[in-house]
Design a protein that fits this description.
The protein is built from nine helices and nine strands. The structure holds uridine-diphosphate-N-acetylglucosamine.
């Protein structure tokens, strides 16, 4: 059994993959390949897999394939493709390629894991997220403000039709996400699943930006100053998962809550206040 996952733009995905490998331990040896671009990466990867007679694939997809939700919580049957960003579209295109491949050649089996919003760090404090330059995502931004590396968090949009006007997301601890990969791998290895199947990996709970700010302040004991800003183009108001399919079919459930997500992020950030580059000096 070989697991090859495709890592693209988000370092947090990379953190999840390394944690998955750690969880699986020495019993399996996986060639783990990373590509910069979904579409090019997919074609190179599929060719290489065919040459080596490897026809089982776990793909790192994203909840962004759903675009603006037509209903909540999002099930895997929610329509995909009306994405609000090029990143989401590239995840969608890759899923379509994999669906066609599995339908046209029955040697192929693919599980697509639709990540909601991965956050957190390994509890050792040794594996965490260190974005290049200014973080795009909420959690690393909050933690860099808490550690004093950035002065203030910009809260993008306070007029969404949500509980407090700020965007709501389903944040998932990267170790839970990693365990989702292990379960997917077990499932493919068992031969019980054929063709293409997508699974949501989320907790099912939605937290607003301000709830995340407050939870982080509590976990770290630090202030997280913020200022209200206009909406960020391409952002949706609210997104959270129905992860029933993963529970029933993969026997996977997210176990870590928001407190642990914030505490582990803070543990890593405190140990690496200036990220990895500085700690290597
Ligand atoms: C538009 C965009 O980049 N979308 C990506 C983003 O999703 P997504 O936008 O959901 O995730 P973010 O962490 O960037 O944002 C979460 C929430 O925090 C808000 N926010 C974010 C940063 C900030 O400095 N201030 C702030 O208020 C956002 O408006 C949003 O409401 O990360 C996901 C990975 O986790 C990717 O799959 C998405 O493609």
């Amino acid at each position: 059994m070989i697991l090859i996952t495709i890592f693209l733009q988000h370092k947090i995905d990379c953190v999840a993959h390394f944690a998955a490998l750690k969880a699986v331990g020495e019993s399996c040896k996986f060639p783990l390949q990373y590509y910069q671009n979904n579409i090019t990466g997919t074609s190179i990867l599929l060719e290489a897999m065919t040459e080596t007679n490897c026809f089982n694939l776990v793909y790192s997809s994203s909840a962004t394939v759903y675009g603006e939700p037509e209903f909540l919580p999002l099930t895997e049957d929610h329509p995909t493709g009306k994405c609000t960003s090029p990143y989401g579209k590239s995840k969608y295109f890759t899923e379509e390629i994999l669906k066609d491949l599995c339908a046209s050649d029955n040697r192929w089996n693919a599980i697509s894991l639709r990540y909601f919003n991965p956050v957190g760090a390994h509890s050792s404090g040794r594996i965490g997220e260190d974005p290049n330059g200014e973080p795009n995502n909420l959690m690393p931004y909050i933690s860099q403000v808490a550690v004093g590396r950035r002065p203030v968090l910009h809260v993008y949009g306070t007029d969404y039709p949500t509980k407090d006007g700020t965007g709501v997301r389903d944040y998932i601890h990267i170790v839970d996400l990693a365990m989702g990969h292990v379960r997917a791998l077990d499932k493919l290895g068992s031969g019980e699943i054929r063709g293409f199947t997508a699974y949501n990996l989320g907790t099912g709970a939605g937290y607003s930006v301000l709830e995340m700010v407050n939870a982080f302040a509590e976990a770290s004991g630090r202030q997280v100053p913020y200022e209200k800003c206009p909406r960020r183009p391409g952002d949706i108001a609210e997104s959270y998962a129905d992860a029933t399919r993963a529970a029933e079919s993969l026997n996977w459930r997210a176990e870590k809550g928001i407190k642990e997500m914030c505490a582990d992020t803070w543990n890593w950030q405190q140990s690496n206040p200036n990220g990895y580059a500085a700690s290597k000096l």
